[in-house]
Amino acid sequence: MTAADIPDWTGVPDQGYEGYRFLGYTLYDGLTNWDLSSSDKAADIVPALATAWHVDPGDHKKWIFDLREGVKFHDGCAWNADAAVWNFDRVNSKDSKQFNPKQFSMSRGFMDNVDHAQKIDDSHIAIYTKIVDSYLPYEMSTFFQVSPCAVQKANYDYTAYAAAPAGTGPYKFDKVTPHERIELVKNADYWNKDRVPKHDRLVLIPMPEAATRAAALLSGQVDFVEAPSPDTIPQLQSAGMTITKVPYPHNWNYQIRLDRPPFNDLRVRQAANYAINRDDFIELLGGYATPGYGVFIESQPYYGNPMKYEYDPEKAKELLKQAGCSPCKMTIAISTSGSGQMQPLPMNELVKEQLEAVGFQVTLVPIDWNSLIDVFIGGPDKFPQYDGMNFSLAPIDANQGLLKTTMTRYMSPHGSNWGKYSNPEIDKLGEQALATFDEAERNKIIAKMHEIAVKDAFDIFIVHDLNPRALSPKLKGFVQAQSWFQDLTPIQVVQ
Q1: pTM of the model
Q2: Which spans in 247-339 are helix H?
Q3: Dihedral sign, Cα of residue 117, residue 96, residue 24, residue 467
Q4: Which of 123, 159, 411, 412 could form a disulfide with 379, with the two C-beta atoms 3.0–4.6 Å apart?
Q5: Nearest residue to 338 (alpha-carbon basis) of 378, 405, 384, 394
Q6: How far apart are CA 380 and CA 370, in angstroms?
Q7: CA Rg value for the chain
Q8: Greatest CA separation found in the chain?
Q9: CB of 117 closer than 8 Å to CB of 128
Q10: Is 352 in contact with 345 (CB distance < 8 Å)?
Q11: What is the DSSP letter of 340?
Q12: Residue 477 in contact with residue 492, Cβ under 8 Å?
């Protein structure tokens, strides 16, 4: 893993979405899961612990979820409506014994619209939302179900629970060496027989340095590495390693503060976007990226027809001149490694070089990945020293990707709108999307929002990752999905 430490494995992973990939969907399930079986199309959600769902025709703030029967947690505890409601209280009800303040804080990004859950019978629950939220089934894919029995056995101490966690996922916890490795084993009784792992053991090792990961693969210490650096890929290929890459929704952008200078001026934001020569980044990355001109990639059904900020340094200079911003100073928080940050140090140095070539003055402040996550979650007011941050995001669905990064109601710390972007037209369309349950019609609304947000240059758009991975020739069966999340269960180890 690119993470600097083992992600939290107690039910709400940290270390960004890499934590969800490796210690979310392995140990746990949501009511919905992602279909990660194809590399030919953008991933979408499918039934998981819920087999079906629908919004109440008479009350669009009430959803009915049909629960899968016969599922047990790893510790033998039954999965049912009582367990589901107990889990909602874990992150929503401060009066419940199982309430976890840390998990409450970390889950706000996808649980903020949920009011409460209620049991209908053993196989059905109702989820009530604070607003009409047509994207609730997508939110449920990142809300993992932990065993009430295991937490109760740990006397509601989540540190003690971490010694024997229990979910319903395709892997079971085996053991951990703090800060070094965590080991999971196959759950042979997993409810989805198609996803019972094809290998017996999965060992996850944090290695934030790309060169260290490549050396570990070449020496046989590991069989699979995330994000090999481009300069090592030829050596890895010559050693027989398989390199996978697939276009998928993942943005390596700068999120910027729009509520104060310099980026409260549209001309400055557009100048920054025109200053970026995206081809230089693709060359730096050995071709393992695509140009980023917006939030979504073209294979997503709500991409629309956004304008493109093609490289034009003279136009950038003119816009800065019109804005009277010279030198146009900015301070940007970056990380030295981390989930989805690609090759952050050389890439950020290239951004700095390109921006300064047109009249910006850029100060880069390197901090570790988890500290950068704190900046993102805490919001810009808590960290006023930064005008922006290089924080990669995976717009896996329209709600997380656009609504929660552009609507006023989701301004940090109430969502992912870190830069405090606010546009009444975006808000109006966003409310329409939340209240529209016809997917095709909703996609048209999202596409229009995308076009407006890109024109407003609410981010500095740079590249989309192709997320290269390097696998030992011993591994067969891995399918790289068009998703930030990946399914490791099909991998076979062939000696």
Answers
A1: 0.89
A2: 266-274, 278-284, 313-323
A3: positive
A4: 412
A5: 394
A6: 16
A7: 22
A8: 67
A9: yes
A10: no
A11: T
A12: yes
**How far, in whole angstroms, is CA 481 from its chain's centroid?**
14
Distance of CA 189 to the CA centre of its chain: 29
Q: Distance (Å, rounded) from C-alpha 109 to C-alpha 404?
A: 8
Distance CA 399, CA 405 (A): 9
3-state secondary structure of 347: helix
Q: What are the residues facing 417 on neighbouring strands?
A: 411
DSSP 8-class letter at 11: S
Count CB-CB contacts under 10 A for residue 219: 8
Q: Which pair of structure tokens corresponds to residue 351?
A: 């951004």
Determine the angle formed by the axes of helices 266-274 and 313-323, rounding to 10 degrees.
160
- Distance, in Å, from the CA atom of 394 to the CA atom of 401, rounded to the nearest integer, reads 7
Distance between CA 101 and CA 50 in Å, rounded? 26
**Residues recorded for the chain:** 495
Cα-Cα end-to-end distance for the chain: 23
Tell me the pairing of strands 469-471 and 459-465. Answer: unpaired
Tally Cβ neighbours within 10 Å of residue 21: 25
Q: Contact at 8 Å (CB) between 295 and 355? A: no
pLDDT tens digits, the chain, 495 residues: what are they? 998 899 999 999 988 888 999 999 999 999 999 999 999 888 899 999 999 999 999 999 999 999 999 999 999 999 999 999 999 999 999 999 999 999 998 888 788 899 999 999 999 999 999 999 999 999 999 999 999 999 999 999 999 999 999 999 999 999 999 999 999 999 999 999 999 999 999 999 999 888 999 999 999 999 999 989 888 999 999 999 999 988 878 899 999 999 999 999 999 999 999 999 999 999 999 898 999 999 998 888 999 999 999 999 999 999 999 999 999 999 999 998 877 888 899 999 999 999 999 999 999 999 998 899 899 989 999 999 999 999 998 888 899 899 999 999 999 877 789 999 999 999 999 999 999 999 999 999 999 999 999 999 999 999 998 888 999 999 999 999 988 899 999 999 998
